[in-house]
Amino acid sequence: MTEEKHEIDLLDSTYPLLQEFRRACPGTYKHSQTLVSIIEAVAMDLGLGITSMKIRAMYHDIGKMLNPLYFSENQGDTNRHDEIIDPYMSVQILSRHVSDSVMILINDNNFPREIIESISRHHGTSLFKYFFNIHKKNFELGTITEKDEQNYRYKTTKPQTIEDAILMITDCVEASTRSMSQNGKLEDVGKHVDNILQELMDDGQLNDVTMKLGDLGKIKQTLKNELSGLYQKRVDYSKEELTSEEKNVNEKDKKDK
Questions:
Q1: Fewest C-beta in 10 Å: which of 160, 161, 197, 248?
Q2: CA-to-CA distance for 49 and 115, rounded, in angstroms?
Q3: Do residues 156 and 98 lie in contact, with contact meaning Cβ atoms separated by under 8 Å?
Q4: Is the C-alpha dihedral spanning 246, 186, 138, 98 positive or negative?
């Protein structure tokens, strides 16, 4: 079996681990499928290995299978974190999905080491902003120290390669764009992509990555194109038609008078 055939098998929907993933985490599985499509376009524009990048995207959150209902994309009307008093405990539960992903992929015996390492770095030392803000509100009369903030960060390695960086960027941008779109808060996809990338850079998450001149610009533009197609605002034509009919009725009423 060649390496290329081996990699293609890992992306086959009938691959046992993928079938288990789909059953356990339908929401996360859907997110991963979307990420595969986006990351394929980025890899093509940058001339990177398309298949290996798609495998990273498809399996980066596989560890969520062990606690699926604690992740928003798999929840219904009930959020289990609402039952947890200490936000730090929520962070402990959520951050485990990275090490769980690594464990699952290592035990599978079919994943290249470089892909597992890349997946282990896809959150770097990012901050759990939502839960850290809850922590700050709980202690707003006290002093928030640097140690407090460190407790609300992932304890994993920052991206080291451009492949790592692309996985982190696309994952972060897709998830936040989807969330804002669902909540009706997404005004401009392009500006949102710019803001997320700037936040990652300001937070130092991409400091260890060496990129060619223009690579970041290509990544940004491809993400804007792909996400605009997925989440851009659509005209409600039924509403437009209704408005048009109402106008006609109004015009008729005026003539009758």
A1: 248
A2: 12
A3: yes
A4: positive
Q: Which helix (H) or strand (E) holds 88?
A: helix 87-108
**Two structure tokens written together for 168:** 């982190």
The letter for the amino acid at 45 is D
Give the model's pLDDT for residue 238. 46
Indicate the Cα dihedral angle 197, 202, 205, 208, nearest 10°. Answer: 110
Query: Cα separations (Å) of 21 from 15, 32, 39, 104, 108?
Result: 10, 10, 20, 11, 13
The 3-class secondary structure across 120-181, one letter per residue, is HCCCCCCECHHHHHHHHHHCCCCCCCHHHHHHCECCCCCCCCHHHHHHHHHHHHHHHHHHHH
pLDDT, averaged per 10 consecutive residues of the chain (257 residues), comes to: 54 95 96 96 96 97 96 88 90 97 96 97 96 84 69 96 97 91 85 94 96 92 92 53 49 51
All structural domains of the chain, each given as residue ranges with its CATH number in brackets, are 3-252 (1.10.3210)
